[in-house]
Amino acid sequence: MPIRNSKFSQNLTRFNIPLLMGAVFAASMGTGVFSFTLPLMNLDEKAGGMWLGSGFAGYFLAKLLIAPLSGNYADKYGSSRPLLFSCGLAALLPLLYLLHPAIETLYVIQFILGLCAGTVRTVSMAAIGASMGGHKLASRFAFLSAAMNSSFLLGPLLGGLLYIDKDYLPVLGTMSAFMGLAFILFSYCAKLLPTRTATQDGDNELSPGPRHYLGILIALFGRGMGIGSLIAFYPVLLKSSLHLSPGSTALLFSIPSLATVLLLPVSGRLLAAFDRRLVTSTGMLLSALALYILGGCSTIPGFMFTGILSGIGAAISMPASMAVCSELGCAKGRALGFANMAANIGFLAGPLFCGIMVSASGHIGTPFKLTAIAGALSAVFLLYESISGKGKRKTGIAIAGCCALFLLLMIPRHLNRNTDKAVFRYSDIAMGTVVNLTIPVQENTGTQKAVKEAIAIMHQLQKDLDHRNKLGSIGRVNHEAGKNSVRVSDKAFQTIKSGLEISKKSGGSFDITIGAITTTPFYYALDKERFAGHKALINFRLLEMNSEDNKVFLPKKGMALDLGGLAKGTIIDAAANHLKESGITTAMVEAGGDFMVFGDREWTIGIRNPRGNGIIGRIKVKNNAVCGSGDYYQFIIPVSKDEKTRKHHIFDPALLQSSTESIATTTIAPNAETADALATTVFIMGPKKGNKFMQKHFPDCAAMWILPDMSIVKTKNFPPIQN
């Protein structure tokens, strides 16, 4: 271990450690408040997923790039300057937005925040590593990790409260205040922070060779893959497995972080005396086990258990892994910089790997299992190092070899996605859900090409028809409401026209101008009085369309289109039509429980139970689409005794509140666009009015209602429900 001045270390421990932890917490909160609120701003500005995705990718890329650079600087020149500079710079960033108030500026700020956050994380870790050793090191790193990770819990909560009036200036002001506080706290402890985080002694080289880093860097990369996969795909897994309210979903999503933050101080103290590499690899293997189990979860208790298990694994491995990196040699900043870089590379690679494996495996849970296996494999070499370092090299080789062999043998079973060689299945993520294409033919090059092109068409149409995409047809129409007409794509024009026809036939029960309300995040959770002034903005009759040049105009400012009631069906139809044009005669396209089937084959489709797990029965369909609507997709549970029904996303335009006539509907039509729109329409109407509507305007289509008492009402032509 490096030789340290004992008085210096004592002063740092007694007085500066709390200040240092407080400064790191303040900096993390500043970053968290901003970054976790930015998606809400993104939705309000209708900037679309491209801005959001590239913005967050840039943020983590900035952290990746700055980690080794800031670490090397701290080794040579000390830790106080980069800490003070990064926090001071971050505190001044809101000035950019004041000079140019645009969402593009916010993403520039986010990238710079990534540089600042990466610097604070790496340099603060290096400062602690250079200032103490022994059993206290892991304990201090545990508190440091808790300070950093707490922002994942408190940041979104505070940011949401600050943004409640849709004004981003309070968010920026709070971020600046937290960063200013971090600057002040770092200033107080600057004199006692290490002047250099690389100190020379006789037993260690200043710059250890690659072999010193190999085991821990591989392990950190694997853990980063797991974390990145969770953040990117865990919400999709929850959505496809459970239909919970946003609050319940957020609670399940936060369990791993909550468990980690609560357990870090305890785990750091209890495990400080044990071998660091052994503790790190054990914690990582535990997290990998949790991630593997998570891939097969389908119940709330299962998600809660795996979340807690994942948090325990992270709480065990984080402090120990920091200590391992810190003790690699005298160059603390260099070692910890490369460690953070490896973790961030894994963080970027994890979502990419999961995205690829969704298509390769055909199931959203399988990528989690494969990522878990990769994470466990990445910890095996570190496990070997911990055992062989005690003079038991043969034992280490035997244990690590058996673990690696077992994990490698598990991979093929999860890659074998298609046991029926006569049926080709392909899956991907689109429209926030898993899309499955099933074709009863043997896999071949032509079929692969057709399904990939179909998925690409779905992604393209999703961007064009989504009101949250500022650059898409619908986003541009909404942005120019009350000002100018907008030329839209052919498909967007036809979809708007189809929606307008159903709006007319339904007398406004289905109204594509409901976007005046539904473009507001969590609109269904807000009080009815909030939208009292929006009544005049919801009127499909005011919509102006010019078929000669595909132009659409919303005459009043504040009006907005929302094609969510039928666009999903439009996109499914487009994929099915492309398969037909590619020569495929029989197939099923399914996206989030909505289906389009064509060809000679009769397909069996289950109808979801809206108040429990599983299905209420099955129906057989051929050359038709089956779509559903329900109050279980997006909702909040009533908290008042006076409210007997849940608030959900299907809004009745006449009442300006969630419809209460049904809890679920299923419709059958010749195409998915019609079935999707009808599912929403008859949900709002209820069975009595809806039955008459179907008989008059859509006699060739069928509908089924599940009422609040779980009774079922069907049109006469709805197929028999089989158990």
Keyword list:
60% helix, alpha+beta, globular, 17 strands, 723 residues, 8-stranded antiparallel β-sheet, 10% strand
In short:
This protein has 21 helices and 17 strands. It has helices at 6-44, 48-77, 80-92, 94-99, 103-131, 135-149, 151-162, 169-189, 210-241, 246-270, 276-294, 300-326, 332-361, 365-388, 393-415, 445-465, 473-479, 490-505, 515-518, 567-581, 672-697; strands at 424-430, 433-439, 486-487, 544-546, 551-553, 587-591, 594-598, 603-608, 615-621, 625-630, 635-636, 647-648, 651-652, 657-658, 664-669, 702-706, 712-714. α5 runs antiparallel to α6 (135-149), α6 (135-149) runs antiparallel to α10 (246-270) and α18 (490-505) packs parallel to α21 (672-697).
Describe this protein's structure:
The structure is a single chain. This protein has helices at residues 6-44, 48-77, 80-92, 94-99, 103-131, 135-149, 151-162, 169-189, 210-241, 246-270, 276-294, 300-326, 332-361, 365-388, 393-415, 445-465, 473-479, 490-505, 515-518, 567-581, 672-697; strands at 424-430, 433-439, 486-487, 544-546, 551-553, 587-591, 594-598, 603-608, 615-621, 625-630, 635-636, 647-648, 651-652, 657-658, 664-669, 702-706, 712-714. Helix 20 crosses helix 21 (672-697). By secondary structure, the protein is an alpha+beta fold. The strands form 5 sheets. The protein has an 8-stranded antiparallel beta sheet with strand order 1-2-6-7-10-15-16-17, with helices on both faces. Strands 3-5-4 form a 3-stranded antiparallel beta sheet, with helices on one face. The protein has a two-stranded antiparallel sheet with strand order 8-9. Helices cover 60% and strands 10% of the residues.
